[in-house]
Amino acid sequence: MTKTAGVTAVDERLFLQSVARALDVLEAFAQSPRPKSLGEIAAATGINKSAAQRIGQTLLARGYLERADSGGLMLGRRLLDRSFDYLRSNPLIERATPVLMELRKLAGERVDLSLFDDTSTIYAIRLQSKRETFYATLPGRRIPTFLSSGGRACMAQMADAAVDDLLARSDRRPLTPKSRTGLPEIWEKVREARTEGYSWAAEEALIGEVVLAAAVLDGDRRPIGAVHVAGSLSEWAIPDFRRRFSPLAIEAARALST
Amino acid sequence: MTKTAGVTAVDERLFLQSVARALDVLEAFAQSPRPKSLGEIAAATGINKSAAQRIGQTLLARGYLERADSGGLMLGRRLLDRSFDYLRSNPLIERATPVLMELRKLAGERVDLSLFDDTSTIYAIRLQSKRETFYATLPGRRIPTFLSSGGRACMAQMADAAVDDLLARSDRRPLTPKSRTGLPEIWEKVREARTEGYSWAAEEALIGEVVLAAAVLDGDRRPIGAVHVAGSLSEWAIPDFRRRFSPLAIEAARALST
DNA sequence: CACGAGCGTATCGGCGCCCAATACTTGGGT
DNA sequence: ACCCAAGTATTGGGCGCCGATACGCTCGTG
């Protein structure tokens, strides 16, 4: 039972091939979310057409896939039910909802709760403010930990060795031209977050956007997520933005920490 | 290939038992989202402990389940990735996002996009306004079509026989004491929606809340979802609320219809 | 302290579910 | 009319899954 990249390794004999393949099929739509034919699914997942057919029919019958107008298969609405169950089951989400609402009201800017998940970070709650660009603000979006303000705030709470390990396993490709991808610059931001109590990032994930975040800790003082405040560079100078919102984010994150 | 309750029936020989059981395990958390032991999972899904173990290990390895502190299994963050893919793949969601943002700004109240799914209706996008009660406002929440304003707006676009069929298949249990569950009262609201172009409901899903909604139609004039505006009865009289927001919801829904 | 009831974990023989190749049917493009 | 690629359906065979069983552990309990 060893740990590899944050995922528990499993004895082969306890591993269900067909379940894993079904998950492969669903995950195939992460690359390109357009409808796919059985042949495309088979090619994308490395299984043959017969297996794709069986898996497709099964997921279709359960609502996790749907027929597109074109006749192909696309993701189904039933997936929303499962993520709803997840959100509802997570005590942090429940505690965070009213706190974030209040923060959103105070700040007047977009407010997010992200969940720390090793080399990436997922947005679980997103409270919009103004006009935003479609899917960049959907819940469920993943951002590499190393370039997210929330991710850096989480790394700041970890031991040096753990941060080094995480960064070594990260795929450090930039999302924008301003993404900091070099180890020294990332470490600099992590150290800054340790002294300031929060981290910030300007245009590293989305052009024109400045974000700051403070980490939420569990009972063992380990980071489990972060509270973000995001604003537009067309409305804010970075020093003003930091001065104004960092105390609010830190306060909210502390309220959520066990 | 017959249709039953909106789900396509599948040849038994194309149906993967272990995949279906894995989905059963995930769906078991819909009833009560707390962490479960293997024994509880086995009992809830009707499979034995060995199968639950294998499925659990597989879903755990893929991140769709996680270990709770107690040692039990709970839903995993990976579920959010799949719902993100779904939202991203749905063209309606993409078109609706800016329209709803604008509507939210104009109305100043909570705005939702729901997806029509036979006897129930799912909230896909939720733009909050003020303080709200936790999971009632999470995306992915399902409401019975017959008592949701958006669901009734959708039914108003269907043939009489189809509405009768849908209502006959519905589980018409109330969500609140004010939920209308009788067929005549529901039909009355459907007819009202046909003449008014929108539907409304007061405290039928949530106490203290009034909602109105207009249906979004696809290229064949069939309902695929609805645009909602929701307000608090502590701030609005129902006639004022209807007069003020119904034109906005109708306009937004028309803009989203193909 | 012994005990048993849970838990998660691990093992194993055997059967039946899933495998993959194949053929059929349909529809769209040339 | 042709062909290619799509989804659909069928089949025999093999091995992957099935489920009973057993092990070690941590509880709360008598």
Secondary structure elements and pairings:
Two copies of one chain form a homodimer.
Chain A: E1 3-4, E2 7-8, H1 17-31, H2 38-45, H3 49-62, E3 65-67, E4 73-75, H4 78-89, H5 91-107, E5 110-117, E6 120-127, E7 142-144, H6 149-155, H7 160-169, H8 183-196, E8 199-202, E9 209-217, E10 223-232, H9 238-256
Antiparallel strand pairs in A: 1-2, 3-4, 5-6, 5-10, 6-7, 8-9, 9-10
Helix pairs in contact in A: 1-2, 1-3, 2-3, 5-9
Chain B binds a DNA duplex (30 and 30 nucleotides) through residues 1, 11, 13-14, 16-18, 37-39, 48-51, 53-54, 56, 71-72.
Description:
2 copies of one chain form a homodimer. The first copy, chain A, has 9 helices and 10 strands. Helix content of chain A is 45%, strand content 20%. In chain A, strands 7-6-5-10-9-8 form a 6-stranded antiparallel sheet, sandwiched between helices. A two-stranded antiparallel sheet of chain A has the order 1-2. The two termini of chain A are 29 Å apart. Chain A has helices spanning 17-31, 38-45, 49-62, 78-89, 91-107, 149-155, 160-169, 183-196, 238-256; strands spanning 3-4, 7-8, 65-67, 73-75, 110-117, 120-127, 142-144, 199-202, 209-217, 223-232. At the A-B interface, strand 2, helix 1, helix 3, helix 4 and helix 5 of A face strand 2, helix 1, helix 3, helix 4 and helix 5 of B. Chain B binds a DNA duplex (30 and 30 nucleotides) through residues 1, 11, 13-14, 16-18, 37-39, 48-51, 53-54, 56, 71-72.
